[in-house]
Amino acid sequence: MKLKIYKTFTQENNIIMSQDVLLHLEKHISDTNTLNLVLEKYLELYSTSKADIKKIENIFDLLKSKSEKSLERNYFLIKNNEFVKMNLKNKFNFLKQKIQAEIQPIYSLKENEETIIFGIYYISSTNKQILEDIDNTVELDFKYLNDSICLIENTFISVKGILINEIFQVNQVVLPQILKSKTGDLSVQKNETKIIFISDFFINKNYLKRLENIILLNSKVNIIVLMGQFKVKNIYEEIKEFTNKFININFIIVPDKNDIFPSFLPKVLPYNLKYKNIYFTTNPTTIFLNDRTIYIIKEDIFRNNKNKSTFLDTNFKSESKSCDTNFKDKTESLNTDFEDESMSLETNNKENINLNLEQNIQNKSSFQGTNFNTNFITTYFSQYSFVPSYKEYMSFDNLPDLFIVGQKSFSHCQEIRNVLFASSGEFNKEGGTYILYDALQNKVEIKSLN
């Protein structure tokens, strides 16, 4: 970066500086975006006069003040998740209202009459599939089902069918309707907001160097969301020196449930919410931009729920646009010249999505299809909860523009009912992936590291 600073200031703009000034600039500038901002402000104030440390310090103070004022204008807002006492009856009534059909109580079922019932689905100790509403239970049989569906234990569903010999023969499963929150005024945010999401970020020199390389590749990024497990005792002390080098980037820290001390979700760290450009959040958390809403959770939802789910596949043809890949681990070390591969999902170019994504997937690894993923995510969204199978108190009223899951299982992005789902996968010492989100375009890219 020192050579680039010298070329930009001295060779290209005739700004003379001493070796001490050059080293001072190198200490505070680590990306092209910051370099350009510093140069622009310098030329505005001092033209091409000789640079000294006092002038440079004044530039950094002005840029820092500008950054803080932009935050005061609610450029983005973080909503932390709070513990709320569980109330299954409220959740039952909330999700029941999202079923577009007339529902009959289980206690009033009659033999050989087709009807629709609603309740919480689970598997009993005798391995029977059960649906339970407020007053009663009934055993379910799915052998006549004509749909594809991913059933997760302790989730709410409605089923259509006929009671025969006290067993409800299901021929259709209807999930609560998926409704996205209204998108805000797009004209409010005139500039692009770009966010990087990284999961399982182990804070050490190697990982921070790789993060610096990612920032160099994405010079227009505004926000970086780092998800644990960080594996350090004091996250702020370990990361503050690094974040000070990127004064125009806001770093949002989402802890793993085992960071600092083991606990259940929602996870809350014992820190103040903000230190300069570092924001500590709960897990899960919500980010509100001027025109977008983003939900974030660090939890292996695919891995943790796959053993609890039943996937019933009857040649389902997905209408969702999806991308899915299993990235191979790379053993080569990262540097600023590493090749950056990506696959993307863009909501305003739906006709070309399948072709482009399939080509990208085939170039990287085997394409395994999306039946389980599509149905799992659809069921997941329909429950309006970050962890629907056992954490009722982490519920929400509407789906966001983007739903981010940090997990080790795999990287995946998909659009379900106009909601973008993206899983970043593990950022490990051999390579891994990260997510780049363009809020203005509502576009997700999963990028792999070679």
TrEMBL record:
A GO CC term assigned to this protein in UniProt: epsilon DNA polymerase complex
GO MF annotation, one: DNA binding
GO biological process, one term: error-prone translesion synthesis
Gene3D superfamilies recorded: 3.60.21.10
Protein name: DNA polymerase alpha subunit B
Organism: Hamiltosporidium magnivora
